[in-house]
């Protein structure tokens, strides 16, 4: 059986790094940078766009290698050259963001407004954590500790190691009678966020899901907590995540220096020990999809991989949250061939989409990267590692809001990565419903097979 192409808008976002300015002690600035949407109508135009991209081998941030429906960020000066080039080649385009820095400022201003709306406790003289804003890493840690004190029987915090910059790598366990979890045979559901630093909605979504699992009175969730334990790592890459608040809002990678002078960070989702290093474009240490010097070169990947191998016998499903696109990828990413378990995965995908849509009527595309991104292949990804190395059948990469299919329609085209905090609850709730419904489906199938 083959996947049907449910979502045929492919995405490329190109960051031209010499449009960035940074003064001493200040944030990286993207003043004057523009985001174009370029639509290639045939293979000839696709190749012309690729040649334009290749003219900046170390300065381009490619989020998808399928430029049929692509988005490019360029400087004000480059936009003149780009317009001339596209006009000459008769390639259609439109400007989505006229000034990237203004879009960043707008997002941060809205997020700051959420801070002002927080309620202060007169008794303890502290600010209450706001699940409707994007929070700093330190605030997240404090909130997790507060939740653990409140829900001692349902929640436990594990620190599995420290990052390169010595921040704690934290995993939250949630289940009924959590103190007996280690000696139980409960199936494990894994959820993580913050793999790519700038994808703030993935962290906010993971935190929102932790809260819902703890406070929800829904019968479906209560039953799942009797048979499952949820392992949730809300900030997989804490160094990079904190860096997006202090220095560069659009930083993607880790913060460990590479073996090339001046090049910092590795793409966590190219660093896993499965089909690693097979793509030439991921070998440039300054590139934003750099795969590292070797598999599991990154400290966070080493610690989490060690935990995955330990819990593998009970790990039933793996969910990694990203943005954006409103897509759900399944293995494999490295090949056009489908997994031997493609039938099981398709059934699970349909359940996810139905449950997610029932919340806010949002559509999610389903399939492999090769299907959804017009032939895109990725190497060293976490879903392939879980599926191919650890033999976890149900392995999912969820791209949260927004969807580029709705740009210029019912969603703000200036958001993209810079999602408004107003979208946190609807985006998180629909994905949470999709995950819960799919976990129920998987559990029902496995129980019937016993």
UniProtKB/TrEMBL annotation:
GO terms for biological process: proteolysis. GO terms for molecular function: metallocarboxypeptidase activity; zinc ion binding. PROSITE patterns: CARBOXYPEPT_ZN_1, PEPTIDASE_M14. Keywords: Carboxypeptidase, Disulfide bond, Hydrolase, Metal-binding, Metalloprotease, Protease, Signal, Zinc. Transmembrane segments: none annotated. Gene3D superfamilies: Metallocarboxypeptidase-like, Zn peptidases. Residues 133-442 form the Peptidase M14 domain. It comes from the Eukaryota. The active site is at 399 (proton donor/acceptor). Residues 1-25 form the signal peptide. Its cofactor is Zn(2+). GO terms for cellular component: extracellular space. Belongs to the peptidase M14 family. This is Peptidase M14 domain-containing protein. It comes from Clytia hemisphaerica.
């Amino acid at each position: 059986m083959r996947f049907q192409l449910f979502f045929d808008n492919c995405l490329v976002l190109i960051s031209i790094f010499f449009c960035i300015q940074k003064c001493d002690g200040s944030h990286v600035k993207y003043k004057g940078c523009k985001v174009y949407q370029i639509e290639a109508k045939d293979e000839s135009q696709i190749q012309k766009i690729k040649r334009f991209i290749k003219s900046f081998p170390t300065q381009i941030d490619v989020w998808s290698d399928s430029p049929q429906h692509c988005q490019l960020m360029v400087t004000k000066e480059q936009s003149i050259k780009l317009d001339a080039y596209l006009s000459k080649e008769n390639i259609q385009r439109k400007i989505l963001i006229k000034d990237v820095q203004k879009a960043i400022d707008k997002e941060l201003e809205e997020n700051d407004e959420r801070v002002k709306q927080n309620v202060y406790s007169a008794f303890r003289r502290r600010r209450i954590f706001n699940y409707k804003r994007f929070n700093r890493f330190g605030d997240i840690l404090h909130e997790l500790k507060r939740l653990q004190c409140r829900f001692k029987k349902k929640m436990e915090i594990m620190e599995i190691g420290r990052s390169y910059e010595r921040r704690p790598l934290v995993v939250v366990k949630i289940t009924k009678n959590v103190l007996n979890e280690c000696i139980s045979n409960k199936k494990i559901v894994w959820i993580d966020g913050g793999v790519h630093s700038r994808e703030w909605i993935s962290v906010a979504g993971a935190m929102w899901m932790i809260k819902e699992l703890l406070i929800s009175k829904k019968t479906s969730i209560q039953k799942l907590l009797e048979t499952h334990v949820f392992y949730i790592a809300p900030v997989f890459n804490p160094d990079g995540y904190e860096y997006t608040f202090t220095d560069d809002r659009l930083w993607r990678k880790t913060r460990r220096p590479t073996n090339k002078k001046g090049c910092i960070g590795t793409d966590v989702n190219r660093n896993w020990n499965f089909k690693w290093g097979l793509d030439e474009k991921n070998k440039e240490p300054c590139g934003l999809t750099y795969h590292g010097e070797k598999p599991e070169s990154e400290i966070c990947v080493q610690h989490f991989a060690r935990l995955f191998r330990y819990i593998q016998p009970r790990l039933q499903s793996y969910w990694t949250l990203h943005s954006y696109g409103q897509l759900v990828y399944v293995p494999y990413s490295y090949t056009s061939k489908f997994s031997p378990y493609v039938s099981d995965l398709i059934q699970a995908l349909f359940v996810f989409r139905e449950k997610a849509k029932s919340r806010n009527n949002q559509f999610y595309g389903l399939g492999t990267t090769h299907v959804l991104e017009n032939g895109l292949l990725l190497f060293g990804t976490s879903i392939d590692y879980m599926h191919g190395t650890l033999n976890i059948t149900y392995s999912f990469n969820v791209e949260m809001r927004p969807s580029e299919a709705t740009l210029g329609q019912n969603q703000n085209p200036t958001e993209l990565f810079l999602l408004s905090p107003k979208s946190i609850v609807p985006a998180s709730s629909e994905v949470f419903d999709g995950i819960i419904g799919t976990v129920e489906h998987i559990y029902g199938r496995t129980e019937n097979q016993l």
